[in-house]
Specification:
Number of strands: 12
Helix content: 40-55%
CATH superfamily of the largest domain: Type I PLP-dependent aspartate aminotransferase-like (Major domain)
CATH class of the largest domain: Alpha Beta
EC number: 2.8.1.7
Distance between the termini: 31 Å
Largest sheet: 7 strands, mixed
GO molecular function: cysteine desulfurase activity; iron-sulfur cluster binding; metal ion binding
Domain Aminotransferase class V: 2-362
Pfam families: Aminotran_5 (PF00266)
Number of helices: 14
Structural class: alpha/beta
Oligomer: single chain
Catalytic activity: (sulfur carrier)-H + L-cysteine = (sulfur carrier)-SH + L-alanine
Shape: globular
Number of domains: 2
Length: 381
């Protein structure tokens, strides 16, 4: 199987599996217990926390473990909003946040919380004029993804940070797709809170984190004594150890990004040469190196994915959490892409396990399979 769905999840690295097995086998005590087994677990937790903090350039005390990025996103928005000074009640999202995060936005709106969404341009990049118009003195929190999970477009985080802080608002960034794929430094970012998830960088599922800058007040959403009283619940130590191992093994992120970017560009160029009907969404915008969101004329995404599956290639029609439905992507809708074109969108996301041979195989075998379908008049627009 050729795996081209790295934006959905990534295969756990062998070092990650080994780190988790070691904890499950030998360090299974509760870190809150005072006996020897508990103190052994407490030490392992502290060591993993230190490793993760070092790789992300944050302080260990700034790191709050969660069950994943979705929980971290909820904790950031709800926790920062609850801690906002009197008179700051509005929350600002972008229109292209992850589908799960926009469900939170709708839930907040249903509770009567004032909410606005920053528009995007037709290429998927954030409309900074829209951002400037919406971020005012009544805003408590601005929540923005660092890079879009469908198009791969990298958002202008620094510019939005400056707008938010000039207005006295907190900035939360969902860096789920960004960390591990492009260089990241929390200390230098100036961001108030950052979400991430281990399974996007060859770690385990079920573990993520929220980085909360020292001095920023966050109201807990799950009460308890763990995580400095910011997130209750016994720590998932095996997953945390796997998380640490995943981050520790990343190596030269910039060099790997360049390698993957070259493969992505070769894939897109080869497909366009073989099939002139191919259109790449957000091709002119700054993108994550491994993300290619494209359509093959007007061939429905499910048809293309079926043919890919027959070739032994795993891909998706967009966000893995929302694909499979008959509605067009909310991201492409926000980009003002016509419905028939949006329903043809397929996402190929490359990663660490992708090789040049994988790309060569796809370029050799996919165009001959799709060409007869594209020659049908209704599918070649």
């Amino acid at each position: 199987m050729i795996y081209l769905d790295h934006n959905a999840t990534t295969p756990p690295a062998p070092a990650v599996v080994q780190a988790m097995l070691s904890i499950l086998t030998d360090v299974w005590g509760n870190p809150s217990s005072q006996h020897a087994l508990g103190q052994q677990a407490k030490g392992a937790l502290a060591a993993a926390r230190a490793t993760i903090a070092r790789t992300l350039a944050c302080k260990p005390a700034e790191l709050v473990f969660t069950s994943g990025a979705t929980e971290a996103n909820h904790l950031a928005v709800c926790g920062l909003h609850a801690a906002a000074p009197h008179g700051r009640h509005r929350v600002v999202f972008s229109a292209v946040e992850h589908a799960g995060h926009l469900k939170l936005a709708r839930a907040l709106a249903a509770r009567g919380i004032a909410l606005d969404c920053i528009a995007v341009r037709p290429d998927g990049s954030l409309d900074l004029d829209s951002a400037a118009a919406l971020i005012g003195p009544d805003v408590a929190v601005v929540s923005l993804m660092a890079a879009n999970n469908e198009t791969g477009v990298v958002m202008p985080v620094a510019e939005v940070r400056d707008l938010a802080h000039a207005a006295g608002a907190r900035l939360h960034v969902d860096a789920t797709q960004f960390i591990g794929r492009l260089p990241f430094d929390f200390a230098l970012s100036g961001i108030d809170a950052v979400s991430l998830s281990a399974h996007k960088l060859r770690g385990p599922k079920g573990i993520g984190a929220l980085l909360v800058r020292q001095g920023v007040t966050l109201m807990p959403q799950v009460h308890g004594s763990q995580e400095r009283h910011r997130r209750g619940g016994t720590e998932n130590l095996p997953a945390i150890a796997g998380f640490a191992a995943a981050l520790e093994r990343l190596g030269d992120v910039a060099s790997e990004a360049a390698r993957i970017g070259m493969l992505r560009d070769a894939l897109e160029q080869g497909l366009k040469r073989a099939l002139p009907e191919v259109h790449v969404f957000s091709a002119q915008a700054a993108r994550l190196p491994g993300t290619s969101y494209l359509r093959f004329g007007l061939l429905p995404a499910e048809v293309v994915l079926q043919r890919l599956g027959r070739l032994g290639v795993a891909a998706s029609s967009g966000s893995a959490c929302s694909s499979g439905g008959s509605e067009p992507s909310h991201v492409l809708t926000a980009m003002r892409v016509p419905r028939d074109e949006a329903l043809a969108a397929v996402r190929l996301s490359l990663g660490e396990t992708t090789t040049a041979q994988d790309i060569q195989y796809l370029l050799a075998h996919l165009p001959p399979v799709l060409r007869p379908l594209l020659e049908q008049p209704a599918c070649s627009a």
